[in-house]
Amino acid sequence: MRPLALCLSLALVAGAAGAHDSADDHPGPAAADALPFALGGPFRLTDQHGRSRSEADPEGDLQLLFFGYANCPSICSAAMPMMAQTADLLAARGIGVTPVMITVDPARDTPAGMAEPLAELHPDFIGLTGSEDALRRAYDAFQVEHELVFEDPFDGPIYAHGSFVYLLDAAGAVLTLMPPVLTPERAAAIVAGYAERGA
Predict the structure, then answer these.
(1) Helix (H, G, I), strand (E, B) or coil at 100
(2) 3-class DSSP state for residue 40?
(3) Which residue of 6, 128, 157, 183 has the fewest CB atoms within a 10 Å radius of its CB?
(4) How many CB atoms lie within 10 A of CB 22?
(5) Alpha-carbon gap, residue 71 to 198, rounded angstroms
(6) Buried b (16+ CB within 10 A) or exposed e, 139-157
(7) What number of other Cβ atoms are within 10 A of residue 116's Cβ?
(8) Residue 159: C-alpha distances to residues 103, 156, 174 (Å)
(9) pTM of the full predicted structure?
(10) Best CA proximity match to 175, nearest among 32, 7, 10, 9
(11) CB of 187 closer than 8 Å to CB of 82
């Protein structure tokens, strides 16, 4: 196992354990101490409205980034609703957070194909796609691996892909990683901790 993959696996275990402690409302660490390794980088992709978007949030908000696909029946069905609910919880506290998905299934996740399922999750959910090269740059920058597992007769292509939710600052820098098993309340507490520190 690659060193980064091992770090991410350990982070998932630690994060999942913390998710069960609903009384633990401690904010995250200072952004400068968040990650012991380089992760993230620039990208330029197209959203479901046909607009070009980079790693930076145009509204200056924090971002919750996930690599998946709009019609995913497995891990996405946990991560993406959690992201949407977290954004709503934070909005009620006056903290702007944009949920963003970068597709691993560009053949189906065209801008038009992503629009309806993402709108059902949250009106501000952003779906991103692009050319093979543009997507590969994003996958490589965030150390995301994915592969086609099989063709389901009902759901179509089923992909294995990364499951972490990345918390990005407004400029697109990675602040921390969160496992999809976190409750929205726990995820909101973590994000709020960074927001309160001016991330």
Answers:
(1) strand
(2) coil
(3) 6
(4) 11
(5) 35
(6) bebbbbebeeeeeeeeeeb
(7) 10
(8) 11, 10, 24
(9) 0.79
(10) 32
(11) yes
DSSP code string of 115-178: HHHHHHH-TT-EEEE--HHHHHHHHHHTT--EEEEEEETTTEEEEEE--PEEEE-TTS-EEEEE
Q: Do the Cβ atoms of 144 and 159 come closer than 8 Å? A: no
**Amino acid in the structure at residue 14:** A
Domain 3-196 is found in CATH 3.40.30.10: yes
Taking a C-beta distance cutoff of 8 angstroms, is the pair 64, 83 a contact? yes
% of the chain beyond a pLDDT of 90 = 59
Look-up of token digits 């499951």: 163
Phi and psi dihedrals of 53, rounded to 5?
-145, 140
Helix (H, G, I), strand (E, B) or coil at 98: strand
Q: Is residue 190 within 8 Å of 23, Cβ to Cβ?
A: no
Q: Tokens 């994000």 appear where? A: 191
Report d(CA 33, CA 135) in Å as an integer: 28
Are 129 and 106 in contact by the 8 Å Cβ rule? The answer is: yes
Domain ranges across the chain: 3-196
The amino acid present at 57, given as its one-letter code, is: D
Scanning the structure block, which residue is given the tokens 């726990």? Answer: 186
How would residue 143 be classed by pLDDT, with cut points 50, 70 and 90?
confident
